[in-house]
Amino acid sequence: MTTALLAGASGLVGGECLTLLCDDRRYTRIRVLTRRDLGGQVSHPKVEQLIVDFDDLAASSDMLCAEHVFCTLGTTIRRAGSQDRFRAVDYGYPLALARLTAANGATHFSLVSSLGANPDSRFFYSRVKGDLEQALADLALPSLAIFRPSVIAGTRGESRPFERLAERLLTLAPRSVRPVPALEIATAMITVAAEEPPGLTIVLSRDIPDRARSTGSDL
What we know:
This protein is an alpha/beta fold and 219 residues long. The protein has one domain: 3-Layer(aba) Sandwich (Rossmann fold), CATH 3.40.50.720. The protein is built from seven helices and nine strands, in the order βαβββααβαββαβαβα. The chain has helices spanning 12-23, 77-80, 83-103, 124-138, 161-169, 182-195, 208-213; strands at 2-7, 27-34, 47-51, 68-71, 108-112, 143-148, 152-153, 180-181, 199-204. The strands form two sheets. It has a seven-stranded parallel beta sheet with strand order 3-2-1-4-5-6-9, sandwiched between helices. Helix 1 (12-23) crosses helix 6 and helix 3 (83-103) packs parallel to helix 4.
């Protein structure tokens, strides 16, 4: 029986993760990190809501205890307001979470990254994602799984017209860049976490559906 910690439950993939974790008999407790009260979204007997300041996660380090950590945090430069703020959310928050939970004994860390993540990319977004992946790898966590989806398909609570357009245009594209449903990403994350593969595992966009289909019977 395992405790999960989820950061990003209000997002598309995070919301699917939360639903799956609540239904998964392997998890007896789910700690949800959030900056504000999510109300009915987390009204499940297994869920414990932890309201934290992501800019000072260390102040809440004693609460960041779980065997499996799922990080689905992410924003857009437009929503963040600046490149510096985007980097704080998409790089600083996940890295701090990984460091603190590892210090508290976490055995597995899962991250939603992005297709094209590369610290040497000429594109700022991809470069930040790549920098984060490298920083996490340098931590030498017991088990680290990084998922690199293409466009994430699903119904969002906020308007992202460019992502909706890309989702439509890429529907018939090669599998390597085809949109991936948020539910498949979440299912794949939990499937890999249950295996706790040692060291670094990178799951490319084209392989996420297969990982999701290989889920165990407890999901």
